[in-house]
Write a structure and sequence with these properties.
single chain, Transposase, 7 strands, metal ion binding, 7-stranded mixed beta sheet, alpha/beta
């Protein structure tokens, strides 16, 4: 009896076509960026043209497609797709704005405030003591904390380095010297109650970070404080839209890669998000 060990779907497998919910302008811009990189390093050959490489990378980032599936559908190896993704993420992350430059740009444009918020990006749970620091007691999950600034329209201006999930938002901001750089640029930031206590300036000085009021068990909020809290909540609404645009990239649904690489990933997605939102 002759054994037939070939796969049911045939030697080449099945290939399907899917829609990528991004603009052609973003695809063309990324392809030109890849071509410039290849010209700079003197690389004369790649397995696929720059436009196809850009499409594959965007499919991984936007739709969280598995590199092995994309590799099989395009006739390349899985490690080749992974290398392309890391190369393009590095190119994009290098174009992400620095904190001081982003604040100075807002000040030159006549802006007076920025919106401040933090979010936890979920990561795959790993075993061992090294992963314990990634557990966020506030969000009850393993993840990495990132701090972001947006303008009053919700456009992302800057994203911090990814830090362990147990890090508090105030600690992350102090590590980046956020309040000092806000004062240097002549700007103020509006934040939620998670940032109460960040601005420890003199009582007579103008605050660099404006937050609402916290109620205590023996000290309820006055009517004026409640109105102020409601007004601030309405003003800082656009920062939630900024994070929503960022998390439209499904690769952030649950980061499966090395957490140290997550900083470059979120900064690369900031650049792509601004390209999509501004078109």
């Amino acid at each position: 009896m002759k054994k037939n060990n070939s796969s049911v779907e045939g030697p080449d497998g099945l290939v399907y076509t899917a829609r990528l919910p991004l603009s052609s302008a973003t695809l063309n811009w990324l392809a030109d960026l890849i071509r410039g990189r290849l010209k700079k390093i003197g690389s004369r050959w790649r397995a696929l043209p720059a436009g196809n490489i850009a499409t594959i990378v965007l499919a991984v980032l936007r739709c969280d497609q598995r590199p092995g599936d994309l590799a099989g559908g395009n006739g390349v190896h899985r490690t080749t797709v992974t290398r392309w993704v890391r190369e393009v993420v590095g190119l994009l992350a290098a174009r992400a704005p620095r904190l001081d430059r982003a604040l100075k740009k807002i000040a030159r444009m006549g802006g007076g405030i920025v919106l401040l918020d933090g979010s936890v990006i979920r990561t795959r749970r790993r075993t061992g003591k090294e992963n314990r620091k990634n557990y966020s007691g506030k969000n009850k999950c393993h993840g990495l904390l990132v701090i972001a600034l947006t303008d009053d329209r919700g456009r992302l201006l800057w994203i911090s380095a990814a830090r362990p999930g147990r890090t508090s938002e105030i600690t992350a901001c102090r590590h980046d010297q956020l309040t000092a750089k806000l004062r240097a640029a002549g700007l103020g930031a509006i934040a939620d109650l998670g940032f109460v206590g960040l601005d420890d300036s003199d009582p007579g000085a103008d605050p660099a970070v404006i937050t609402g009021y916290k109620a205590a068990r023996n000290r309820p909020l006055t009517r004026g404080q409640k109105l102020s809290k409601t007004a601030l909540a309405a003003v800082r609404g656009p920062v939630e839209h900024g994070f929503a645009h960022l998390k439209n990239w499904r690769v952030l649904g649950k980061v499966r890669t090395d957490p140290k690489w997550a900083t470059a990933l979120v900064r690369a997605l900031l650049v792509l998000t601004n390209r999509e939102v501004a078109r």
